[in-house]
Amino acid sequence: MAGIVRFLNSQLFVTPVKPSGDLTGKTVIVTGSNVGLGKEAARHFTQLNASTVILAVRSIEKGEAARKDIESTTGRNDVVRVMQLDMSSYQSVLDFAEKASKELERVDIAVLNAGVNRGVWEVFEQDESTITVNVVSTFLLAFALLPKLKETANKFNVRPTLTIVSSEVHEWTPFDERNAPEGKLFERLNEKVVDGKEVGLGNRYQVSKLMEVLFVRAFCERYPESNIPVTVNLVNPGFCHS
Amino acid sequence: MRFFLARTTEVGSRTLVHAGTSGVETHGKYLSDCEITEPSAFVRSDDGKKGQEKVWKELVEKLEGIKTGITKSF
Fold this sequence. Notes:
heterodimer, A: alpha/beta, Rossmann fold, 6-stranded parallel sheet, two-stranded antiparallel ribbon, 10 strands, 43% helix, B: mainly alpha, two-stranded antiparallel sheet, 4 helices, 55% helix, extended
C-alpha cells in the first residue's frame, strides 16, 4: 500500500529537475541507448559536454540513427560513438567490455540501462530471456567493466559511477522463486511448470528488477565505499512513455 | 492510466543522468525521483536479506561459470 501511494505521488507530483553540470573530459557509456530512456539519457550526457558518449546497442544501424539524432539536436559532433552490445549473448557482453576497456582512455560513468520485458518463454544462453538480459548479462557486464572503472579512478583521481537501472516494480512481486531449494534458484526460474501449475511470466520483469536491487545491495555490503573507488547505485526512472 | 500518470521519456531519463553523476553517498543506494530512497519493505526484511544472499551466491556462481575469476578481477 505504501508503495502504491509513493508511486502515485511520484508520478503525479514529482518532476525530476533538468540535469545540469559539466562533464567536460568525461567518458560515459549508456547501454540500450538506441531508443527510449537510454537514448534520452545519452542526449543529456552529450548536452552536458561529456567528451565521449558510447551508445552500446544491439543494432549498429539503429545506434547510428540515434547518434545522428543526438548530434543534430545537441550540435555536438565527434562525441557520440556506437558500439555493439547484445545482452542476449554472454560472449557479446564480454567482447564489448574488452573493446571498451581497450579503446577508451577512461570510463567515468556507465549506465546499465539495457533490459527487456518479454512475457514469452524463450531461453537465451542458460536462462529464461528476461533473467538472462536483465540480471545475468547486466552483472556480467558490470563485473567486466569494473577493472576499467577502477583504473580510471586511480589514473585520473576520480570516483566513477556504475548505475544499474532498476524499477519501482521491484516492489510488486512476492518473489516466490526465492523459496527454491539451496542452489536451485536459477533452475526454478527456468521451470515452466512448478507443482503442477504452469508458470506465467506476468511478474518476471518485476522479479528481474528485484534481483537487481538485491544483488547490488549484496555487492555493496561486501565492497563498501572505502573498499572500492567506484560508486555503484540503483535508479528507478519511474513509469514513463515508451 | 499511462496517459495520466506517465512521465515523458526525456523527463524519466533525467533520473538516469542524476544517478550516473551522483557521488559516493549513493553507493549501494536506490534512487527514486533523484533522491536516495528506501527500496521495498521486502528488500529490507529478514526474508529479503535471505533472498539477497541466495541471489548473490547463485549469481556469483553462475558468473564464475561463464568466466572464471570475473567476480574477483577488480
